[in-house]
UniProtKB/TrEMBL annotation:
Name of the protein in its database record: 2-octaprenyl-3-methyl-6-methoxy-14-benzoquinol hydroxylase
Lineage of origin: Bacteria, Pseudomonadati, Pseudomonadota, Gammaproteobacteria, Vibrionales
Native source species: Vibrio maritimus
Organism superkingdom: Bacteria
InterPro entries reported in the protein's UniProt record: FAD/NAD-bd_sf
Family annotation (SUPFAM superfamilies): FAD/NAD(P)-binding domain
Length: 67
């Protein structure tokens, strides 16, 4: 691969990588916090995500790179 191709690939992938990194940071902060309001919010959001149907499928596809 040429240097130009690598730069272009990095430019295309950077937004997706930053989104996934930010998402993982949010998960870490959310699950490492034991304050009762935070635990309630986390559980409510997880329950919502579990029952989100097609949205859940789309997010999973995006997470594994299938968009």
């Amino acid at each position: 691969m040429t240097q130009q191709a690598l730069v272009q690939y990095e430019r295309l992938r950077r937004p997706d990588n930053l989104l996934m990194q930010t998402g993982m940071d949010v998960f870490y902060k959310g699950f490492s916090n034991t304050l009762p309001p935070m635990m309630f919010a986390r559980n409510a959001i997880l329950k919502l995500a579990e029952h989100s149907g097609p949205i859940k499928q789309q997010v999973l596809k995006y997470a594994i790179g299938l968009k």
